[in-house]
Amino acid sequence: MNSIRQAMSSKVFWICAAAFGLSVFLASVEAIAGAVQGLGEGGMLECGFHGYLVLEALSKNALLLALPILCALPYTASFVDDVKSGFIKEYLPRTTIAGYLRGKIAACGLSGGLVLVLGLLFAYGLSALVFAPMEAPLAEGEEAVPYFVELIRVLPLFFCSGAFWSLVGMTFAAMTKSKYMAYASPFIFYYILIILNERYFPSFYILYPKEWLAPGEYWPLGNWGVVLLLLELIALISLAFWIAAKRRIERL
Prior knowledge:
Keywords: Membrane, Transmembrane, Transmembrane helix. With 252 residues, the chain is an all-alpha fold. Helices cover 75% and strands 0% of the residues. The longest helix has 35 residues, at 97-131.
């Protein structure tokens, strides 16, 4: 619980969540510019533009570039910091190694996932606040597109993806005892998988990070099939961290 509280209360966590939300707007510069131009000509925005803006940004490269960086910043270096500062030697007598490692895994996964989820909710709220008053009303007999419902449906994908990449960073940091690897390894491996898929193995979609965020119709169970895959990957990378961190602690 202490680790989770530490992760959730840090300024870096909230800054990264806000930065990911702002990345939505950076990824939608063209759409926003077009909307502003239309307003300047005396028109109104299409009904639901605020939701459309956010959902369209989810597949843009600018947002995907920010994802493995921002989810890794809040907590991936915490274990290495504890080891290098000597804090772990003072803390372990008050708990167990297993309890300490469970707390690190939970805090790292939650912080990485929630950075993305809170960032998207922040982006949607800000988009609604700014653009909804400028949208045209629904025409008679027309139904509103449930953009917010669509956003809620993809939040588990972003949460699990953020948790996984955050744990990747903490695992490689534990292996190398390097803060640089804590922040760099998620980004590096994220783009290695993308390059391998796009250049060499286009049919191997199961390990394609972009596919995890926008699954095709061929996925068994749809979005939940991706969630199950990511949960399995989270379990595997958590086990790898446990082994690496326990060995590191035993050498102290």
